[in-house]
Structures are given as C-alpha cells and as structure tokens.
Amino acid sequence: MAFITGLTLAGDVWTPEFATSIDPKKCIGCGRCYKVCPRKVLDLIVRGEDVELDDDYDEDDTASIMTISNPGDCIGCGACGRVCPKGCYTYAPHPAA
Ligand code: SF4
Ligand code: SF4
To answer: Ligand 1 within 6 A of 74 CB?
Structure first.
C-alpha cells in the first residue's frame, strides 16, 4: 500500500502533488527543473516539429524541452514547478488519494 499522505516534522499532514505533465508549448528547455529534481524523474529531449508554440515563445530559445521520463519515481515534492519560469507543470495527488 503506497503512502498517499505524509507528515511534516511538526506532525502536520502533507499531501504530495505529483508531476503529471509538462506543457511542451511553453517549455524553453532551461533545465531549472532538472537541476532541482531529487529523483531523476526528468529528461531533456529534442522538441518535436509538430509542437505548436505559444505566442510569447522566443525562437532563440533552445530546441529542447523537458519531459517526464520516469514518472514512477516522482515523490511529489513540487520543486520542479516552483523553479519553472514558464508555468509548464501540472500536478495531481496520488491516484489512490
Ligand atoms: S515533483 Fe519533485 S520528484 Fe517529482 S518531478 Fe518534480 S522535482 Fe522531481
Ligand atoms: S523549468 Fe520549465 S521551462 Fe525550464 S526546462 Fe523545466 S519545464 Fe521547461
């Protein structure tokens, strides 16, 4: 049985929010999320040509985007979304929660 909630050191209940998707239209491939992820959940990949970009996307940005390559290792810490400058992340509680 997986743990779907945890406790803070003070004993408060804390519900992890797991990374479920990264918006490929917004991601600029900056790598900030990759650097802070403690679980090797993320990987930089080449952007597919079929991805339609957002209007404010700078064409000088890299041709790479981040992807969730190993979702099963996510601990739901939320660090990736806090450092993302483009608001790419979507989260959800554990499916059993
Ligand atoms: S929520 Fe935490 S463990 Fe999951 S992908 Fe983001 S930084 Fe990594
Ligand atoms: S921090 Fe955001 S914009 Fe930067 S690589 Fe990660 S998902 Fe993409």
So the answer is: yes
With cut-offs at 50, 70 and 90, classify the pLDDT of residue 74. very high
Pairing of strands 89-92, 64-68: unpaired
Give the tens place of pLDDT for each residue, 27-70. Answer: 999 999 999 999 999 999 988 766 666 666 665 556 899 999 99
Tell me the domain boundaries of the chain: 24-92
Q: Which atom of ligand 2 is nearest to the CA of 83?
A: 1
- One-letter amino acid identity for 88? C
Burial group, residue 28, by CB count within 10 angstroms (0-12, 13-18, 19+): buried
The pair of structure tokens assigned to 40 is 């090797």
Per the structure block, which two tokens stand in for 26? 């917004």
**Any bridge partners for residue 67, and if so which?**
43
Give yes or no for a contact between 33 and 83, defined as CB atoms under 8 angstroms apart: yes
Measure the CA–CA gap between 97 and 86, rounded to whole angstroms: 28
Domain 24-92 top-level CATH class: alpha beta
